[in-house]
């Protein structure tokens, strides 16, 4: 419970900081106004992940990873389109929030949450094919700020 509270507090601060940046642009008409900001988290696993990404509608991403300083980056236009398309395919208003607890001690739990709904597991049926796009961003940003192909540091 303490970890969830930390993630939520961190997400709130990051969203407030992102709001101070450039005015939000709608990535695509299909993503809907309520899909962003998306909060994508990955916790647990053998490696003990504690990753939190907050993706704003204008392509700004705040990245918080265990043992590292928080950082920000901007999605490439292709990545913005991919995530907006993925967010538009998730039936936010019809999803049932998933259990966020690990099923076993080293369970890797990857979730996405939107103001429109969630949290839902990325490997579950509720995110459909959109879950793969969110996982792609998580994996891309795990490679480090200079190795990312989807998000340019600033």
What's this entry about, in short?
The protein is an alpha+beta fold. It has helices spanning 2-19, 77-89, 130-142; strands at 38-44, 49-55, 60-65, 71-75, 108-114, 117-121, 151-153. The chain is built from 3 helices and 7 strands, in the order αββββαββαβ.
Largest sheet: 7 strands, antiparallel
The helix/strand class is: alpha+beta
- Whole-Å distance between the termini? 33 Å
Classify the helix fraction into a percent range: 25-40%
Number of domains: 1
Describe this structure in words.
The chain has 154 residues and is an alpha+beta fold. It has one domain. It contains 3 helices and 7 strands; from the N terminus they run αββββαββαβ. The protein has a 7-stranded antiparallel beta sheet with strand order 6-5-1-2-3-4-7, with helices on both faces. Helix 2 packs antiparallel against helix 3 (130-142). It is globular.
């Amino acid at each position: 419970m303490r970890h969830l509270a930390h993630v939520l507090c961190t997400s709130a601060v990051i969203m407030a900081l992102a709001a101070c940046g450039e005015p939000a642009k709608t990535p695509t008409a299909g993503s809907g106004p309520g899909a962003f900001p998306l909060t994508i988290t990955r916790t647990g696993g053998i490696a003990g992940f504690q990753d939190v990404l907050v993706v704003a509608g204008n392509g700004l991403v705040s990245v918080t990873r265990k043992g590292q300083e928080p950082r920000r980056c901007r999605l490439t236009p292709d990545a913005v389109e991919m995530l907006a398309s993925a967010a538009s395919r998730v039936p936010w208003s019809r999803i049932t929030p998933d259990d966020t607890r690990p099923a076993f001690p080293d369970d890797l739990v990857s979730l996405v949450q939107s103001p429109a709904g969630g949290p839902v597991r990325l490997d579950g049926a509720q995110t459909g094919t959109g879950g793969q796009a969110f996982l792609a961003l998580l994996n891309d940003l795990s490679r480090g700020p200079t190795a990312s192909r989807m998000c340019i540091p600033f």
